[in-house]
User: Which sequence fits this backbone?
């Protein structure tokens, strides 16, 4: 409670700030840790003395532990705590505030979270506003765009930086209009006051899982709502079999999920893993590996369905026909829905009655690479006589040819009746819901859930909306479209997000095409140049602009190719102590607090631990200052201050009562609590005191197996389908879904008319051959997929030399392919296709299928301007617009990338923990 109870003298604060700056200078230096580096201190040489000093402070109670945000977009939202004394972070740890138990487990963080200090206190921080040396306002030759990414920077004042930005925005809006301004971030609300802006749209995380789920009776493809239809963690032990379909929770949502799966395994549950690479999560639960090439899952599951039908017809009693006829439509001719326009059904298609091709294991094996006996075995495991959980990630649907994968995945689950009862489920385990799905037992409120807003009746913190029609550009082709000055908008929301997915005729404008002349790119906190397909084309686009502005706390690849850098501070930084100075919190910290849940049992309430470092500002302040220079007010943009929004989420937090039905406020607030921080709110009686949440930074709901808080997805529907219909046209789960087909066919983007039931579509594997019939290999014969990686979350945290040293940047190759290429582990390999070239260090493995290679996602580009080779190994040098989905133009299919590789004959790569920081040269 130090910040609530203790006065910090100004001289102590300034002394602490100086110590923080010294820490930054010594932290995040290029190079692997030296032998005298303390793994707990983060200071390199001399770290042991620092460690002893911090231990002394902890023992003497001279500082406090603060629960802080871990904002990488991995979805984990785990508990991270830092020890702070005099405004300086001295130590870091995870959850140790209670004994660890099945009912009340500790919420431990992963290596990314453990080493957040290396990220916050990194040499890569942008410390003050910067301008690219030769850039000048006015556009055209004044911008010297050809030098972007290649020249030095100069420090400028905030007034200079904001004046530049406002001046150029006004010029371009007046001369060229709103379609000449492209927002790569999520905010920049001031642009909406000027007439709107172009921005991208895609199903980036969810692939083809985003469109169809609500239509066919499940839920919106996003990880948070979709996972509500799974089962909670205490039900895992009720499964006979758990299928991990393309998932790797040890890497993408580390922390507790694998612990829950391990407990199920210890209780006797068996595991199956389906995917092209036998990963660490599969190994941890001793899963049986079913090999399936990337993008060929539809062929595999078609054959599984065929075998289930065959086994059932031969007396195997595999299919739950009662379930199919009671809860689904369209499996066979007896169950077509009322709105069917095609008198065809899924079973007849699988048996080959329409195209003359039975979808047998032999047919599928040639495409997906799965042994026929494994297909038959998997089909037998799906029997109605077993309790089976089918848990998928979205990676298999980030491929071409996967348009019907979600519907087919659901179909196989329904054939075995694996929904709505203990031990049975079919759902995503994406993000924080991995291994613990269900409605939230505890959650923060919304930013507008309490307090007083500036504008009466306002329901959002950001007031102005983008009123520009047809403003959405397809992300998979964003660089191509901006380069060519032409884009097609495939429908556009008019009334905000829709609960039926983004491809929906009702509430959308029809397609439209536009010629454009882009002049300005603005970005906030994202890293679009590094994280988007076709980096070489993206660099070309950036060099064409009159101005590129980036708001971020670190020097990313997007920063490198910008003109104006506006540094914000991190969610670790801010001020919630009125005795120190003006109260302030990170606006992006507010956004993340609204998602700050590790799982359904836990809500996080992180707070700033240190004062804003260097000359950095809150994002809301930056936007407000730009607005003022354009003739607007802060109140034209925001309905409340970030601080008010922050406390609204605390005050609006709710927890489920023991009856499992009602909710109540979580936190008790007094008027003094609100007054202390200068915010408005209504006093309330909650379950726990505000001061307790302030100290702990989280609340976790205790569980037990006989409580009323368990969750079984679809159970209400299965108990009474008429009283609890699904959100489909029929009210049932639709194996034949007319709405899906109509919406996608309305786009007129696909090569042919899509059927209402799942069908097979040509795969990238087939396209890798010059001649499929003779199996003559094409120019780029390897399918490269990009798994999430434990050392980073997308492009976040990769500056951290601790994790760089522990987890190098590999290119995973099968032992069979490596032998043919003369490559061994540790060799530098050149990976290439028509889009670009990159270097990585080979990791030869027996656990990846031949013909498949893996490049863990998110590496930073270090481009050699002479050779065009990326020495950082960014996979987006090779993924380009040609991986756009065949049917849905906003669907990223980047796991469908075809490449070749060879042993590099140049200077071998150093481990990237030895790379120099990607810093600017300041003049």
Assistant:
């Amino acid at each position: 409670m130090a910040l609530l109870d203790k006065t910090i003298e100004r001289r102590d604060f300034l002394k602490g700030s100086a110590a923080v700056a010294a820490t930054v200078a010594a932290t995040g230096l290029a190079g692997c840790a030296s032998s005298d580096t303390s793994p707990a201190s983060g200071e390199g040489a001399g770290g042991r003395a620092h460690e002893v000093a911090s231990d002394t402070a902890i023992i003497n109670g001279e500082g406090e532990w603060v629960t802080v945000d871990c904002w990488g977009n991995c979805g984990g939202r785990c508990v991270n705590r830092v020890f702070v004394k005099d405004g300086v972070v001295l130590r870091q740890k995870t959850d140790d505030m209670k004994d660890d138990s099945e009912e009340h487990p500790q919420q431990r963080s992963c290596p990314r979270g453990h080493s957040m200090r290396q990220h916050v206190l990194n040499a890569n921080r942008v410390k003050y506003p910067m301008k690219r040396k030769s850039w000048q306002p006015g556009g055209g030759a004044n911008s010297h765009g050809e030098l972007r990414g290649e020249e030095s920077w100069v420090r400028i004042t905030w007034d200079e930086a904001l004046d530049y930005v406002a001046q150029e925005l006004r010029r371009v809006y007046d001369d060229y209009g709103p379609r000449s301004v492209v927002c790569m971030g999520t905010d920049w609300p001031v642009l909406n006051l000027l007439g709107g802006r172009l921005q991208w749209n895609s199903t980036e995380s969810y692939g083809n899982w985003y469109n169809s789920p609500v239509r066919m009776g499940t839920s919106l493809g996003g990880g948070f709502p979709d996972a509500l239809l799974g089962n909670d963690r205490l039900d895992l032990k009720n499964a006979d079999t758990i299928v991990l379909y393309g998932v790797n929770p040890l890497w993408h949502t580390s922390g507790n999920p694998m612990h829950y799966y391990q407990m199920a395994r210890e209780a006797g549950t068996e595991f199956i893993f389906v995917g092209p690479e036998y990963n660490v999560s599969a190994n941890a639960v001793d899963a049986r590996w079913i090999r399936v090439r990337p993008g060929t899952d539809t062929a595999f599951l078609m054959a599984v369905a065929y075998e289930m039908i065959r086994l059932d017809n031969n007396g195997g009693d595999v299919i739950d026909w009662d379930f199919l006829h009671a809860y689904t439509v369209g499996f066979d001719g007896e169950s077509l829905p009322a709105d069917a326009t095609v008198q065809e059904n899924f079973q007849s298609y699988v048996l080959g009655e329409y195209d003359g091709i039975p979808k047998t294991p032999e047919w599928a094996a040639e495409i997906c690479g799965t042994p026929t006996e494994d297909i038959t075995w998997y089909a037998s495991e799906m029997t109605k006589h077993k309790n089976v959980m089918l848990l998928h990630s979205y990676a298999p649907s980030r491929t071409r040819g996967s348009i019907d994968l979600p519907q087919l995945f659901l179909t196989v689950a329904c054939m075995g009746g694996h929904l709505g009862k203990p031990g049975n489920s079919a759902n995503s385990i994406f993000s924080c819901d991995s291994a613990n799905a269900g409605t939230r037992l505890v959650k923060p409120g919304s930013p507008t859930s309490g307090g007083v807003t500036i504008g009466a009746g306002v329901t959002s913190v950001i007031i102005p909306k983008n009123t520009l029609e047809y403003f959405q550009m397809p992300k998979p082709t964003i660089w191509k479209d901006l380069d060519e000055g032409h884009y097609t908008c495939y429908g556009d929301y008019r009334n905000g997000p829709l609960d039926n997915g983004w491809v929906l005729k009702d509430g959308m404008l029809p397609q439209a095409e536009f010629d454009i002349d882009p002049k300005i790119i603005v970005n906030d906190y994202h890293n679009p140049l590094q994280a988007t397909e076709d980096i070489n084309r993206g660099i070309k686009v950036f060099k064409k602009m009159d101005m590129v502005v980036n708001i971020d706390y670190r020097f990313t690849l997007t920063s490198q190719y910008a003109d104006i850098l506006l540094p914000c501070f991190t969610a670790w930084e801010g001020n919630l102590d009125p005795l120190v100075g003006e109260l302030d919190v990170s606006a992006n910290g507010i956004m993340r607090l609204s998602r700050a849940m590790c799982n359904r049992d836990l809500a996080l309430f992180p707070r700033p631990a240190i004062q804003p470092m260097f000359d950095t500002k809150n994002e809301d302040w930056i936007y407000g200052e730009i607005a003022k220079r354009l003739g607007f007010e802060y109140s034209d943009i925001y309905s409340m201050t970030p601080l008010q929004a922050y406390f609204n989420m605390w005050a609006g937090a709710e927890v489920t009562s023991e009856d499992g039905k009602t909710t109540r406020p979580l936190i008790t607030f007094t008027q003094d609590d609100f007054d202390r921080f200068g915010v408005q709110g209504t006093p309330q009686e909650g379950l726990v005191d505000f001061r307790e949440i302030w100290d702990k930074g989280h609340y976790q709901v205790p569980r037990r197996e006989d409580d009323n808080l368990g969750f079984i997805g679809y159970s209400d529907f299965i108990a009474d389908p008429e009283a609890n219909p699904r959100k489909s046209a029929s009210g049932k789960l639709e194996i034949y879904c007319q709405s899906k087909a109509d919406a996608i066919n309305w786009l007129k983007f696909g090569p042919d008319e899509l059927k209402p039931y799942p069908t097979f579509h040509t795969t990238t594997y087939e396209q890798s051959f010059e001649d499929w019939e003779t199996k003559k290999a094409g120019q780029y014969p390897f399918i490269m997929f990009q798994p999430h990686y434990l050392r980073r979350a997308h492009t976040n945290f990769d500056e951290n030399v601790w994790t760089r040293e522990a987890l190098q940047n590999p290119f995973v190759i099968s032992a069979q392919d490596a032998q043919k290429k003369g490559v061994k582990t540790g060799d530098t390999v050149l990976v290439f296709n028509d889009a670009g070239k990159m270097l990585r260090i080979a990791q030869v493995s027996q656990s990846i299928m031949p013909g498949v290679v893996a490049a863990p996602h998110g590496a930073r580009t270090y481009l050699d301007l002479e050779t065009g080779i990326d020495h950082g190994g960014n996979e987006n040098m090779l993924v380009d617009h040609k991986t756009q989905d065949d049917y849905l133009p906003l669907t990223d299919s980047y796991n469908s990338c075809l490449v070749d590789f060879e042993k590099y004959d140049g200077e071998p790569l150093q481990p990237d923990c030895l790379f120099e920081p990607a810093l600017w040269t300041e003049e």
